[in-house]
Structure formats: structure tokens, C-alpha cells
Here is the input.
Amino acid sequence: MSSTATTLAPELAVSEWFNTPAPLTLAGLRGRPVLLHTFQLLCPGCVAESIPQVQRIERVFGSTDLQVIGIHTVFEHHAAMTPVTLKAFLHEYRIRHPVGVDRADPASDTPLTMQRFALRGTPSSVLIGRDGTILHHVFGVEDDIAVGARIAMALSAPAPHALRASASTDEQGCAGGRCEVAAGGQSTD
Amino acid sequence: MSSTATTLAPELAVSEWFNTPAPLTLAGLRGRPVLLHTFQLLCPGCVAESIPQVQRIERVFGSTDLQVIGIHTVFEHHAAMTPVTLKAFLHEYRIRHPVGVDRADPASDTPLTMQRFALRGTPSSVLIGRDGTILHHVFGVEDDIAVGARIAMALSAPAPHALRASASTDEQGCAGGRCEVAAGGQSTD
Amino acid sequence: MSSTATTLAPELAVSEWFNTPAPLTLAGLRGRPVLLHTFQLLCPGCVAESIPQVQRIERVFGSTDLQVIGIHTVFEHHAAMTPVTLKAFLHEYRIRHPVGVDRADPASDTPLTMQRFALRGTPSSVLIGRDGTILHHVFGVEDDIAVGARIAMALSAPAPHALRASASTDEQGCAGGRCEVAAGGQSTD
Amino acid sequence: MSSTATTLAPELAVSEWFNTPAPLTLAGLRGRPVLLHTFQLLCPGCVAESIPQVQRIERVFGSTDLQVIGIHTVFEHHAAMTPVTLKAFLHEYRIRHPVGVDRADPASDTPLTMQRFALRGTPSSVLIGRDGTILHHVFGVEDDIAVGARIAMALSAPAPHALRASASTDEQGCAGGRCEVAAGGQSTD
Here is the structure.
């Protein structure tokens, strides 16, 4: 279900954002822990389990600097899960955190962020540390207690000031070879 | 939450059917109890509560002559809940019973079947007796025990052979005045 | 999990009653449907599942003539589940319906009512019809919808006036051979 | 529902232990985080919520040095919740961690540990740090995510070697004035 890796998280590839005034990048968030929650709006396990869990996470950690980001990683039923439907879905389910539409890959049913993180399906969650490395990723839903523990540990890590300073340059090459490496490193779970 | 009425159920108005080789009509089902479950695919209460309840009903009453029918009564976010999305939704949620798309009313956001039954929103359920009368309707979700009891009572009623014989003629005028009366009769809950 | 039988229910054997001004007998209740719920206060499945279900049943069928009876059928940890502890348990769990302590059998760990009904453990439920016959019995907990349906059917049966008149005589021989027959008849589930 | 205090936890007062070969003291556990879970076996909220949560905690943190301790703090229905009944309860609910019977106070219905920690009722939980101070206490049950986060933080604290050495002397005066202070300090929640 889960694995850990000490690799730097690849950058997000997002074609459209909701619930945020400006696009987000992991590079720009360096210094803060990030919880990436990837889902599809017609995925029963996402609706019944992982989205409610993310909302519980937001309640508990609302006063911390944890950044929760949803990524709509459509890899099936593409015509059924358009951004128009996603927008209404976010409204009906009262999802307030930033949600990005994973950028389609013309050559594949699997969109780009999903490829870069080597995600196996939805729901998947990736916890990214203040230094931009992947602390944990999981396909499916883990126990709330374990999730709370992991996020607390991510929050308690000291902010890596040096890394944060170089974030904007790190970002540049992300769509290239490094994402491939990261994806390869995660494919062992 | 609920009310009972001794009025004849109005006819369905459906623009497209899923999970059935041929369109269904209440008139054609006269003689069998019918559970109408009306929902929207982006309605959280439908997905979390009423659809699982309908699936439990199907398991318990699968060997009886109860007919379960879903009606997708979209009255908001019309562009987000198209038949294309509904079809994928039915696949992902493993909904096997016949589901009809409530026919749009060009003059209203509320589709026609919803208007005829005077439904207040989704989820709503209407239990129709063997004689075609409305035994019970409810906005929201009732206790499973009560639901089981009501359906058992509907099933135990004797089949009304005379009514069944005249069903096809009854159906003709259904879109006219009688539906209006029925809707009026139900608006007191 | 369940079976049906057309045998007359054996009589209860109770050493102490709670929540009733006078002892109850099935013979005395002839004419009304009876739901017997047998449990032990230290049985996790009883506390977590069957007792809450019985309380839901009471809410739904509170205005009918269904009689709910609990029987505390202790067959293990006898020193731990005394009537003193049972009394506090009923108070804390807000159990308001009549509860009888199954009468101990000096020759067995299994108390008498449990033997007579050939119950396999706790929780078990026995639904008894207006005519005093066993309509259904189950070891474990069934789906609420099915339970609601069964009770509705039991309630809809006509009251058997002739049987009711002879109830007090029927009762006499109940502790004898007939209970043995009933127990044998139910041992096939 | 909860409060934090920087006071040293008072010592346990236990008349009988289960699931441990030798009595436990908080002083003897200095250096390890301790989760005290106080309950009564006839407390519905304990059985339905806090005990299952403690068991989830044990699953997630089973490989850490967190010590989970249950304290049976009977403050009502004393005759109904004896150690004999507790022993059977622990067996039936598969509670494997050490459980102590809170020592009765001849002058009060409230037992001694409960008094010392100024607990308001059951279930209550007290999280004690490696240095023996109370990190958190709560009456009722908190969200699993928050509980997981708190325990992770307690586990991540460095072990206080100096404090651990002096633990046995610290323990002596615990039943005296210091417990009063601790109780006073916690009464503000």
C-alpha cells in the first residue's frame, strides 16, 4: 500500500486550477509540507473515503502551514469527468482547497502528474516534506491515526532555508529527466 | 420528511434510459410494486446514503417482483451532469437497475418527472403499489427498517388484475390533468 | 445464519425480570408478534450491533403491537454477568423493553431458554408470530431492511382468536416434550 | 474538551492489574510516552468509541515505545463492575495492554487515580510525555487524526535521561501535595 523514498517530488502539471487565485507549484511551496491528494470525481473510494479524510485533515491541521492540494487525475471516462463537472463537484462537496486538473498527455490516457509520480490509481496521496522530498505515498486510504502521525512529523521538521532559496531554479528542470527518476524510484511499492 | 397519498402515480417522463433493453412506463409495470429512486450524480446525500440503500434493497428483495427504477432528476448544474457523465457514474457505482434521465422542461430548470411527482429535491423515493397508487414518498433517506417494512407491505398486497388489464389505456392521459392532480396531492408534505 | 420452522415456540424460562411490572410468558402474549432478542452483556456483537438494531426496531414499530423481549442468556463467564451487572447495563444502555434473565440449568452452562430454543450463541433473535409459531430465527445480526420486512409481515398477519383463547392451557406442557421437538426442529440451520 | 498543562503527572493508584506480569508505575515508565485510557466497562461511549480507538492506536504505534495503559475508573454502579466482570470484559473485547483497577477511596465514590488526575468522567485519556509531564488530557474522544498527531509528537521528543534517573524518588511524594496541584492545574478545561 505504501512506500517511502528520499527522492525530490516531481513538479505538478496542471491545465486548470480551482479554488486558488494563482497557479501553484511544488517549487513555490518549498519550505512547507504539502499533502497531494489525487482523485477522480467518479471514483467511489475517493468520494466515500479519501475526500472525507482530506477534509478531516484540513480541520485538524487548519492552523498549521500544511498545504493541501487536490489533483484531478482522470485516467478513464475522460468525457465524463470534464472541468465543468469537476467545478460543480467541488461546489457540491464543499471542497475549498486548491484543486488542479492534471494535464492530459496526448499520447496516453494517463495524465502527466500521475505519470510523473508513478501513481497507480485513485485515490492516491503523496506527502511532501518541507525540503521538497517525498516523505510517503500511498494508493488507497490509510488509517486516520497513521495519517495524523505522518503529517505531524512532516510539520515538526525544521524549514530548510537553503533549499527554499533555490526553489525557483529547481523547478525549471522538473518536467525533464528528474521526474522520470522520481517515477522510477516510486514504482517499487 | 414523508407523506402518504392515495393518488395514482403520474407517468415517468424520460429522455434516455440506461440498463434496460426497452423504455419502462409505470403503466406497463402495473401489477408490480415499483420503487422510484430519484437522484443526481453530484448530490452527496445520494451517493453516500440513498444509492447504497437502494443497493441494499435490491439485495434483500432481489427475488421478488419489486421493480427498482432510478430517475436522474437534474435540477442544477445541468452542464455538469450530462448523460455521458451519468453513464460512467452508473458503471463506476455498479448500478444495475434501469435508470432514466428525467426529461428536461425547456421552460424550467426542474425536469418533468420531478415536476409531476412534486419532488422537493434529491434524493427522493416514491413507493408505488401494485395498483399504481403512491404508497409513500419521502425527501431524504429513511431508516432501513422502515423502508424494509414498507416494501414488504407493498409486496404482500394482492395483484390487481382488473387494473392491470386497463394499464395501457390509463397511460395515455397521464401527462395531462391527472399528473397535475397527483402533484397537487403530494405537495402537502 | 437463519432458518424458518412452523413449530410452536417453546415457553421462556426466566428467573428474574427487569423493565416489566409482571413476568411475561409467550403464552400470555399469544395474538401479538414477539421479537425475542437474546444477548449477553459482555458479548461485543450484542453491544455493538444487535442491541442498537433492537432499539431501531423499537423506534420504527413503537406504535404497533409488536412485543420486544430481551433474554440475557449467559452461557459463559457466569460470575461476571450477574443480574446486578445486568441491571446497571440496562440502565446505562437505556434499554427500556422487558428483559428476562434466562433461568440457569444446574446441569449445564447453557441456560434453559437457550436450550429450549436451541440457540447457538449470542446474539440470537427469534421472531414469533401471532399464532405462537416461530417465523424466523437467526444467530448473528441480519440486514435492517430484511428485519423490517419480516416484522412487517408478522404484524400484518391476522390475529388468531381461537389460538389466543387456548393460550393458557398450551402453556402448561411447554417445559415438557414439545420444547424438545421445537429445539430439534431448529437444529438444522 | 481538552487542555494542556506542563505539570508532572500524578502517580497511578491501582488495586489490581491485568495483562501485566508486574504492577506498573508512571515513575517506572519515565522516558517513554504513556497513553492512559480511563474507562468503565458499562460506559457505552468507552465500548463503542474510545476502546476501539485505543486498539487502533496500538496497531499503528505497536512498534514504538509508546506504553498504553488502561485504568478502570469505576465511579458508579460499583457492585456491577467488579474485577471479576472486568477480567471477562478484557477477555471478550481482546484488550491485551495492561489494565489497572483504580483504587477505591473509602470516603468517595470516585477512585483515587481519577481524583489525582481530576478526571471528569469516562472515557478520558491522558497523554504523558517522556519527561513525565502531562502533554494532553481529554474527556471524551477526539478525532483519530489529532490523536495520531499528538502521539507522534510525544514519540518524537528526545528521551530525558536525567529525569529518568531520578524517577524512583520523584514517585514518593506523588500521592501528596503534588497531585493536588496537578489536579488543580487541569481543572480549567
The two ends of chain C are 7 Å apart (CA to CA). Residues 162-189 of chain C have pLDDT under 50 and may be disordered. The first helix of chain C runs from residue 44 to 60. Chains C and A do not touch (no CB pair under 8 Å).
